[in-house]
Design goal:
About 55% of the residues lie in helices and about 10% in strands. By secondary structure, the chain is mainly alpha-helical. It folds into 2 domains: about 70 residues; about 110 residues, no CATH class. A hairpin with a 4-residue loop joins strand 4 and strand 5. The N terminus is likely disordered.
Length: about 220
């Protein structure tokens, strides 16, 4: 009988200890979870605060450089709303391209006519500047991306040309200049002969023009 009472008492104490241990573990887990949630919430709040600080700082910069003021002034400007007409716009573009091509064709025809009319005046000597000579009054032009002289054309002769190869007459240079004065959309104008001589407008300096041959372009 005493043994039975002792066993029951031991079992009761064991159950009590287990319950106490479980309660402690449960409380500990709850504390850990609360701490984890607190850390997460702190991180979210800190991140939100950083975003707000950045946003406020950007607004200050925007105001300091006057963007809002410029926008207000821009809004006061008068403007007219235009409705788009794709068909009309396309027709206008086609007309402008056609006119531009006609202008280029006129330039080519003018130079060609001058060459044919004065071909018998071509000579073995010329007073036009040589493109290979660095001497000259050249000014950089952004459209041509080179230093050029719009007052005249320059000439070159291939090293393989014969000594009696003839240069174009000065009137070819004159007509090229006239065509450019009338149509600034024209860039380089060039004419080359079967003898290896070429004339180029506007005049410019070529670093390696001695190796140039218009017959092998």
């Amino acid at each position: 009988m005493d043994g039975t009472l002792f066993l029951n008492s031991y079992i009761f104490r064991l159950n009590h200890d287990l319950k106490h241990t479980c309660n402690v573990l449960d409380v500990t887990m709850k504390i850990i979870i609360v701490l984890a949630l607190s850390c997460y919430a702190y991180g979210v709040i800190a991140q939100d605060l950083d975003a707000r600080l950045l946003s406020n700082r950007l607004k200050e910069i925007k105001q300091s450089i006057g963007i809002d003021y410029l926008q207000e002034e821009f809004n006061k400007l008068p403007f007219t709303t235009k409705t788009g007409n794709g068909t009309k716009l396309l027709a206008d573009i086609q007309d402008k391209l056609a006119a531009s091509l006609v202008g280029f064709t006129n330039v080519l025809d003018a130079v060609k006519d001058e060459v044919f009319q004065n071909e018998d005046r071509f000579t073995a000597q010329t007073t036009l500047p040589k493109c290979c000579d660095q001497t000259g009054t050249y000014v950089y032009d952004p459209k041509f991306r080179k230093e050029v002289d719009f007052s005249t054309a320059c000439v070159t002769k291939s090293p393989s040309s014969t000594s009696d190869a003839k240069y174009p007459h000065n009137t070819v240079s004159d007509i090229m200049k006239t065509q450019y004065d009338q149509n600034k959309n024209v860039l380089w104008q060039h004419y080359g002969t079967l003898e290896g001589v070429s004339i180029i407008y506007p005049s410019t300096y070529w670093n390696d023009c001695y190796n140039y041959d218009p017959r092998f372009r």
